[in-house]
Design goal:
The chain is mainly alpha-helical. The protein contains 18 helices and no strands. The chain is globular, with a radius of gyration of 22 Å.
């Protein structure tokens, strides 16, 4: 198991206090999470908010297309779900630590519920609909970062935290697989504006679960100056430590390359003559592989093993994309994507290192920064994939992503190992 970070991972005044001891638990398995009442509330709220997000995205896209008749405007409603994350993740990150976590989570849900309810008003013009679409995207990284930091309070910062974070990711991936199909079916029964009212109700239910299902905890840090300045200072503090920077890059860089085949699934399916069925399978293969990989690692592997395989997995996960150079048929392409998706299990080991490296008083800001960066780099990766495919073609672009991504991941793995060894040496020299 990698050594715990020493006091030098961030300035001494920011060192995390010792976590409250947690009762002994079995070494593996997700079911033990549900023995924690607060986690049950967080989990149910997560599922409801995902329902709200998926239904809202589909309903708003259909509504905007119906009002404008423009495919560009319809697509823009989806893009606006990604782009504002960087704003919330940098300028509002301080909210996660300056205020009690439960209050932040509930207010974020209420803001999203209000926006969805306003979208359902018939007189709202398209420009206002798109503006309202941006608001939840701005508060989303704050909500997700605060929730992840709260998980460490609810579950401790050991293996239960890793499994809890993993389970929320698995639910999110599963929701993407099933949610859009179910959302489409819903719109055959109700109008888009009525579906937006369902979205608003889902966010209200999530807010109620968090308000009454979790206990109040004080803010992690005091309010020092203006929110924007405090958020930027917090980001600088988080990024000041080399170990934390490397871990953040390990969260961000692999997904930027992993999304390339998804971004190019439509032209690739067309080139294969696979039709809409093949396109759907290509879009599903990566998340199915990710779900399978995380489920196996979380339920069958011990914490020490998950940490031991994290860096080898991150170095291997993009290698299947090199197989695109052989112009594989649909079944082989699906197998390559499944293998690459399964490599996402590396995040379980990475989660443990990250929560050790970040002091408690900066945890909310660090998680918010992580979330915002992750959403942003995926959008950047999709855009770059499209641009590269215009000149090099789909198979060359995916193959190039595999080669370049593997090189970047290997460099980051070496950097992570070096920072781990440095921190271990520092701890030994200071007898910590």
């Amino acid at each position: 198991m990698p050594p715990a970070p020493s006091a030098r991972t961030l300035p001494p005044m920011q060192q995390a206090p010792a976590s409250a001891p947690t009762p002994p638990v079995p070494s593996t398995g997700y079911t033990r999470l549900f023995a924690v009442p607060e986690f049950r509330a967080v989990f149910a709220a997560h599922a409801l908010s995902l329902l709200g997000v998926v239904v809202g995205e589909i309903a708003l896209s259909v509504l905007v297309y119906g009002l404008t008749g423009s495919p560009l405007m319809s697509a823009l409603t989806f893009a606006l779900g990604f782009l504002p994350h960087v704003v919330g993740g940098t300028l509002l990150a301080g909210v996660a630590d300056r205020f009690p976590a439960r209050r932040v989570l509930v207010v974020c849900d209420l803001v999203c519920a209000a926006c969805a309810a306003l979208m359902a008003v018939p007189a709202v013009p398209v420009g206002a609909l798109l503006a309202l679409r941006c608001v939840p995207a701005v508060v989303s990284p704050v909500f997700q970062g605060t929730r992840m930091a709260t998980l460490a309070d609810v579950l401790g910062d050991g293996d239960l935290f890793v499994l809890g974070r993993s389970l929320l990711r698995i639910v999110a991936q599963s929701a993407l697989l099933a949610g859009y199909g179910l959302g489409g079916l819903l719109l055959t029964a109700v109008a888009p504006r009525h579906a937006l009212l369902i979205t608003s109700g889902a966010f209200l239910a999530s807010a109620a679960l968090l308000r009454f299902g979790t206990r109040r905890r004080p803010a992690r840090a005091g309010r020092a100056g203006a929110l924007t300045g405090d958020s930027l200072r917090g980001a600088r503090q988080v990024l000041a430590d080399r170990r934390v920077r490397v871990l953040l890059l390990l969260f961000w860089v692999p997904p930027m390359f992993v999304v390339v085949p998804e971004a190019l699934a439509a032209p690739y399916a067309d080139a294969l003559g696979a039709g809409s069925t093949g396109l759907g399978l290509l879009m599903c293969a990566l998340p199915v592989g990710a779900i399978a990989g995380e489920l196996y690692a979380g339920s069958r592997l011990r914490p020490a093993v998950r940490e031991r395989i994290a860096l080898p997995l991150v170095c291997l996960m993009l290698l299947p994309y090199l197989g695109y150079a052989l112009h594989p048929n649909l079944p082989v392409s699906l197998l390559l994507l499944l293998l690459s998706g399964a490599g996402a299990a590396y995040t379980l080991g990475l989660d443990q290192w990250f929560v050790r490296a970040v002091p408690q008083e900066l945890r909310g800001r660090a998680m918010t920064l992580l979330t915002a960066g992750l959403m942003t780099v995926q959008g950047v990766g999709m855009a770059l994939a499209g641009a590269a495919a215009e000149f090099a073609g789909v198979t060359a672009t995916v193959t190039g992503a595999g080669a370049l991504g593997t090189a970047c991941c290997a460099a980051l793995a070496v950097a992570a190992r070096r920072t781990e060894e440095r921190d271990g040496a520092d701890r030994n020299m200071t007898d910590r």
